[in-house]
Amino acid sequence: SQALSLASRLVEEGASILDFGACSTRPGSEAVGAEEEWRRLRPVLEAARKEFPDLRISVDTYWSDVVERTFDSIGDFIVNDISAGEDDPRMLSLVGSLGLTYVAMHKRGTPATMQSMTDYEDVTSTVADYFADFSIRAAQAGVSGWILDPGFGFAKTLEQNYELMRGLSVFKDAFPSNRLLVGVSRKSMVYRLLGITPEESLPATQVLHLHALQNGADILRVHDVVEASQTVSLYRAL
């Protein structure tokens, strides 16, 4: 009931996609396993599909078993995989066979053992090269129209996050047929730079959202839907 209440509010505020996750994937977090994820997800997803039959649903998971069960339960949805298919070798072939929309994110290591990228001088080129390789794997698995997520905050220093933000247009130039997703809402790259708390980072987050939109972002993953929707409206007016 709490999840549905939140979902209803987000829809009323203008969300066009609802992203459901049953395990934290922030750096330093521990996995709970596919069975526990599905135990948590199933009742909420089934209720959400019934409540919002026409709304796009996204599921944040890197387990192919969870993807398969979700598809059997609610039908078409978006797979939001922070591992870009690396954590489960069956993921890409399953997504391809089911014809699902797929979000591939860049990271190094698992959330619990995130690997630093301090050994790379040009993080934007490194991430672009990563997705060039991923595009080959995706094509071989029959995954088309995948969404690119550069992975802000995952295995990247504060400076590298802003380098990546400045270079967003590189991804639109290199992958013109793929939508670009940006998720920076309340992340440490905002509040650490400014010396504030996550709760105080909303205005600064909208600055980054506007920059992302101006440089090719197609989807914003946010906590604060009203403010993000207003930013999108102002961007379109400009």
Describe the protein's architecture and organization.
This protein has 238 residues and is of the alpha/beta class. The strands form two sheets. It has a five-stranded parallel sheet with strand order 1-2-3-4-5. Helix 3 runs parallel beside helix 4, helix 6 packs across helix 8 and helix 9 runs parallel beside helix 10. The longest helix is centred in the middle third of the chain and has 19 residues. The mean pLDDT is 93.
Structure described in brief:
The protein is α/β, with parallel strands linked by helices and 238 residues long. It has helices spanning 2-13, 34-51, 64-74, 91-98, 123-141, 158-166, 168-174, 188-194, 202-214, 225-237, and strands at 17-21, 56-60, 78-81, 101-105, 147-149, 181-182, 219-220.
List the helices and strands and how they pair.
Layout (H helix, E strand, L loop, with lengths): L1 H12 L3 E5 L12 H18 L4 E5 L3 H11 L3 E4 L9 H8 L2 E5 L17 H19 L5 E3 L8 H9 L1 H7 L6 E2 L5 H7 L7 H13 L4 E2 L4 H13 L1
Parallel strand pairs: 1-2, 2-3, 3-4, 4-5, 6-7
Keywords:
five-stranded parallel β-sheet; 238 residues; 7 strands
